[in-house]
Amino acid sequence: MKKFLIVMKAEITKQQQHDYHSAYVYFSLLIWPILGFFEVYYAYKPFELTDYMGIEDGKTLLAFLGTGFMAYTCFWSMVQNAWSMANQERRGGTLEIAFLTPASRLAMSYGRALGALIQEVWMFVCFCGFLLMYTKTIRWDNLFLLPAVLLLLIISSTVWGGMLNAVFLFSRDASIVMDVFDMPMTLFSGTRVPVDSFPCWARIVSMVFPLTYCINIIRFALNIQKSSRGWRAEILGLLICLGVMTAVTVFLIGRAERHNRETGELQFY
Question: What residue ranges do the domains of the chain occupy?
Answer without folding.
Answer: 2-263
